[in-house]
From TrEMBL:
This is GDSL-type esterase/lipase family protein. InterPro entries: SGNH_hydro, SGNH_hydro_sf. Gene3D superfamilies: SGNH hydrolase. Residues 7-174 form the SGNH hydrolase-type esterase domain.
Length: 198
């Protein structure tokens, strides 16, 4: 059995999704038929910053890996938008990302980062800056990055979901779009599995 940890905030938990799947549930459902040896673990804490994520993810993951070898663990860090909402500086965000990536590397985890998606219109310029910081931090550590901001900032269905939902949460269609972006990134190669159709 190989562990796949999806670490993040309420977007990882799928809050606001009428089907209660979020993007994580949709991605797992599409992946498990291709790799039934995977065990998915959603480690979500609503409204947390990158600093708060850094301080807790490893202890939560390690208590779930007692019977697996280190090389059997993967972790996707899904960066939310709360560094923007709570005034975390770009410098501190960059340091937090470096810290959790270095910790994951030291533990032997294969890592991947998903950046923040667009949120409320007034916040989007700062979320775009946060996404750029996340992408740069991932690149500096040689870690794959999934851009959630760029494709969704221009997507009509995402905008419609954001206008209909509450608390800047997507609905069913929005989470489906996020799942599509994950599944059409380097997801399958990261997990060492053949994508469907190959």
């Amino acid at each position: 059995m190989r562990n796949v940890f999806l670490v993040g905030d309420e977007l990882v938990a799928g809050h606001g999704d009428p089907k209660a799947l979020g993007w994580a549930g949709r991605v797992a459902a599409r992946t498990l038929p291709l790799a039934p040896d995977l065990a998915f673990h959603t480690l979500a804490v609503p409204h947390e910053t990158t600093g708060e994520l850094t301080s807790r993810w490893d202890e939560e993951a390690l208590r779930r890996t007692l019977r697996t070898e280190p090389e059997a663990n993967h972790v996707l860090f899904a960066i939310g938008r709360h560094d923007v909402h709570r005034g975390v500086s770009p410098t501190m965000t960059r340091l937090n990302i470096a810290n959790f990536l270095d910790r994951a590397h030291a533990l032997g985890f294969e890592t991947l980062i998903a950046g923040p998606p667009p949120g409320a219109e007034a916040d989007n310029p700062r979320i775009a800056e946060l996404a750029a910081v996340c992408e740069d931090a991932a690149s500096r550590r040689g870690v794959g990055y999934i851009d959630m901001y760029g494709p969704l900032a221009r997507h009509e269905q995402w905008a419609a979901d954001m206008a209909t939902g509450h608390d800047s949460l997507p609905l069913q269609a929005g989470y489906g779009l996020m799942a599509w972006l994950v599944l059409h990134s380097r997801w399958h190669s990261w997990l060492g599995i053949e994508p469907p159709g190959n």
